[in-house]
Amino acid sequence: MTAVLRLDGVEVRYGSTTALAGVDLTVDAGERVAVVGPSGAGKSTLLALANGSVTPTAGSVQVFGVPAGQLHGRALRRLRARVGTVHQHLELVDQLRVVHNVNAGRLSRWPAWRAAWSLARPQGLPEVLEALTRVGLADRVFDRTDQLSGGQQQRVAVARLLVQRPDLVLADEPASALDPLLADRVLGLLAEPAADRGGALVASLHDPALALRHCTRVVGLVEGRVELDAPAGRLTLGDLADFYGAPR
Ligand SMILES: Nc1ncnc2c1ncn2[C@@H]1O[C@H](COP(=O)(O)OP(=O)(O)OP(=O)(O)O)[C@@H](O)[C@H]1O
Fold first, then answer.
1. Using a 6 Å cutoff on CB, does residue 23 contact ligand 1?
2. 220 Cβ inside 6 Å of ligand 1
3. Angle ∠(168,211,38) on CA atoms, nearest 5
4. Which domains does the chain have, with CATH numbers?
5. What ipTM did this prediction achieve?
6. Under 8 Å CB-to-CB from 75, ≥6 apart: which residues?
7. Cβ 123 vs Cβ 114: under 8 Å
8. 178-224, pLDDT tens digit by residue?
9. Atom number, ligand 1, closest to the C-alpha of residue 88
10. Which residue ranges traverse the bilayer (predicted)?
11. Of the residues 17, 57, 176, which should be mutated to test ligand 1's pocket, given the most ligand atoms within 8 Å of the CB?
């Protein structure tokens, strides 16, 4: 079986900073992986490798069996359509209405004329409304995105991913601005491709309880190295507190 994501001996350096050092990690279909670790441990860098926005200084990264970073043209677009990211900084266009930001999730599947036409007359509205309903924002579809709160904008980014329908979901702190009920709802949505379509979820999560509730596996990074890799079912909140070195 081809792994959804495979990192072999990966190192990433930004100038004199080593963000990841000798990381080996294989994520198989159906897995929901929580990436945990202190601030600066390399979690975002790991996710960025998986969507090709960062290339390794050493080692190799394969996504669905294909070397990421070595693709061009149609093959690259095909891979990008299968990988959906909820970025830590969301990457929404503030001045656009919510509908346009959600539709951005499927631009790679649309011809250029349809994408351009959609700015004047939004295309595929039923699917956009369905995605927004699932994140609890159906009533904000035509609002300007910068009029939404931080947590609402985070849910727009999740709705954008839902209309994309990716197989591999990469989520960088996707619930950081959400209340506990919404956080659970959003994690459930992000886990669907892993549960239903043979995809996978890799999510950076600072909340250990969310990680244990929604993920099948926990990978812990410390200073760019994998220091913990265990099935979520074998870990307790106390284990994760120990991992972070928190007093219990
Ligand atoms: N573009 C960059 N240029 C220089 N250094 C960077 C860059 N991106 C990340 N780093 C450094 O790489 C290391 C890992 O950063 P990364 O963002 O992957 O950590 P993180 O675990 O996601 O942190 P956080 O939990 O605070 O988001 C840090 O020391 C960071 O300062």
1. no
2. no
3. 100
4. 5-244 (3.40.50.300)
5. 0.97
6. 66
7. yes
8. 999 999 999 999 999 888 878 999 999 999 999 999 999 999 999 99
9. 27
10. none
11. 17
